[in-house]
């Protein structure tokens, strides 16, 4: 990473130094994808140098002090660079098994971050900003959703000590969220619903700033849209919030109604839960559903280009990068009406939004909309989706929303030098 001025050595302006603080980089999903997209975009803009700081998300995090592992209580540091190929820093937490402790400040990371010009937090829940707000450096908080929205959106789990504990943690997280949202200098959100929610908490410095998609890499097939392609869904395969059970049930109805229906491909990070695997077998779909875990970016582009319809049956989405990637590749989308999907899809023009309803009604609507795309509207929807994605969600358009925010916040400030960071005892990456 570059931390000093660049150029020909004849007075080139120093880069603004940004600490990009995020979480779960090794787990995959929307937050890590957004963080990596933003880091790449800022570095290519030539005005910024970016260091990634990844926060512990697991109760078994090796860099953390763990309640159940007394040997870790005396760790001299929570900082490491050994993190699943992580290009940056990883920071453990104290008492990491307790969720809200992961959102607490740590002296080490505070001292490190004070040498930057700006801290950009990219997170799911705004509680993660609790680690960095109030350290004396401007903080921009980019968030996807609220913990109570995400955890309350999917069907309730059976009552147990574990679910009771999670309920307590959600309430604690909610308090941290409200405090962090009020303390951040600027909050950037992904949809209009969360914009209204943040304003209601008392944060006026909030705006919609969508993440972007590389519309050059994610582009349509040279042969254009084709109705004989498979149905495709891309998500974290093990996440219950993605609603794969109801997708499988709807697909079963589709196959029974039309035996020539295309195959279904489920792609993404992680493994398909056993409950979903059993459901596929019970529905007699084991020869019609193909699972593609942990595909590379190149493989993912090929998957989009080979499909006819993109399906998403999530209970909640902050935005849904996979929907944007599908649209960039010229795919029409059929998705449940989450806040994120409503932000991406132009109803009836680039795809169909299906309102949450009873399980039976939802399945009927999903089947009807897929058939509409396959039989009538697919080609036009795919073309309009590509146009919409390029105009509103391409990297250049989306990145400006972030850089314009930085310029407005840092006007009149002089960039800090790498030597300031060294004075805090942290080596530059």
Biggest pleated-sheet summary: 8 strands, mixed
Which descriptor suits the 3D outline?
globular
The N- to C-terminal Cα distance equals 6 Å
**Main sheet: strand order:** 3-4-2-1-5-6-7-8
Low-confidence stretches: 1-10, 418-429
Number of strands: 14
Structural category is alpha/beta
Taking Cα atoms only, what radius of gyration do you get, to the nearest Å? 22 Å
Walk me through this protein's architecture.
- This protein has 429 residues and is α/β, with parallel strands linked by helices.
- The chain has 13 helices and 14 strands.
- It has helices spanning 30-44, 107-113, 147-152, 161-183, 192-201, 244-257, 274-282, 297-306, 321-328, 339-344, 359-393, 395-410, 418-422, and strands at residues 16-23, 48-55, 79-80, 89-91, 118-123, 139-143, 186-189, 206-208, 230-234, 264-268, 289-293, 307-312, 333-336, 351-354.
- The strands form 2 sheets. An 8-stranded mixed sheet has the order 3-4-2-1-5-6-7-8, sandwiched between helices. Strands 11-10-9-12-13-14 form a 6-stranded parallel sheet, sandwiched between helices.
- Helix 9 (321-328) packs across helix 11.
- 44% of the residues are buried.
Topology overview:
Blueprint: E1 16-23, H1 30-44, E2 48-55, E3 79-80, E4 89-91, H2 107-113, E5 118-123, E6 139-143, H3 147-152, H4 161-183, E7 186-189, H5 192-201, E8 206-208, E9 230-234, H6 244-257, E10 264-268, H7 274-282, E11 289-293, H8 297-306, E12 307-312, H9 321-328, E13 333-336, H10 339-344, E14 351-354, H11 359-393, H12 395-410, H13 418-422
Parallel strand pairs: 1-2, 1-5, 2-4, 5-6, 6-7, 7-8, 9-10, 9-12, 10-11, 12-13, 13-14
Antiparallel strand pairs: 3-4
């Amino acid at each position: 990473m570059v931390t000093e001025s660049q150029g020909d050595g004849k007075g080139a302006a120093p880069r603004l130094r940004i600490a990009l603080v995020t979480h779960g980089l090794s787990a995959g999903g929307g937050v890590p994808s957004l963080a990596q997209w933003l880091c790449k975009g800022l570095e290519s803009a030539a005005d910024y140098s970016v260091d990634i700081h990844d926060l512990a998300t697991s109760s078994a995090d090796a860099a953390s002090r763990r309640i159940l592992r007394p040997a870790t209580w005396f760790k001299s540091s929570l900082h490491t660079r050994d993190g699943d190929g992580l290009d940056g820093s990883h920071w453990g937490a104290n008492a990491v098994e307790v969720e809200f402790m992961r959102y607490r400040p740590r002296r080490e990371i505070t001292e490190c971050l004070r040498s930057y010009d700006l801290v950009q937090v990219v997170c799911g829940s705004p509680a993660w900003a609790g680690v960095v707000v109030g350290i004396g450096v401007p903080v921009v908080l980019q968030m996807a959703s609220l913990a109570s929205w995400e955890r309350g959106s999917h069907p309730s789990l059976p009552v147990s000590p574990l679910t009771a504990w999670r309920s307590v943690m959600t309430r604690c997280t909610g308090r941290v969220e409200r405090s962090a949202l009020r303390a951040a200098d600027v909050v950037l959100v992904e949809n209009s619903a969360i914009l209204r929610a943040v304003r209601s908490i008392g944060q006026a410095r909030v705006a919609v700033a969508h993440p972007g998609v590389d519309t050059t890499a994610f582009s349509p097939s040279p042969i254009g849209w084709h109705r004989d392609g498979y149905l495709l869904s891309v998500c974290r395969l093990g996440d219950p919030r993605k609603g794969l059970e109801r997708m499988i049930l709807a697909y079963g109805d589709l196959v029974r109604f039309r035996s020539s229906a295309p195959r279904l491909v489920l792609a993404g990070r992680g493994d398909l839960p056993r409950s979903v695997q059993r459901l596929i077998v019970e529905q007699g779909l084991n020869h019609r559903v193909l699972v593609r875990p942990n595909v590379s970016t190149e493989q993912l582009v090929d998957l989009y280009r080979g499909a006819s319809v993109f399906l998403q049956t999530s209970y909640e989405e902050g935005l849904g990068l996979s929907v944007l990637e599908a649209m960039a590749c010229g795919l029409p989308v059929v998705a449940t009406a989450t806040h994120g999907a409503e932000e991406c899809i132009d109803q009836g023009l680039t795809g169909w939004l299906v309102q949450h309803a009873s399980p039976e009604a939802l399945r009927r609507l999903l089947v009807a909309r897929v058939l509409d795309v396959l039989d009538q509207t697919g080609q036009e929807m795919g073309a309009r989706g590509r146009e919409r994605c390029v105009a509103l969600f391409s990297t250049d358009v989306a990145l400006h929303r972030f850089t314009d925010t930085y310029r407005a916040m840092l006007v009149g400030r002089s960039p800090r030098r790498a030597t300031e960071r060294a004075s805090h005892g942290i080596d530059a990456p």
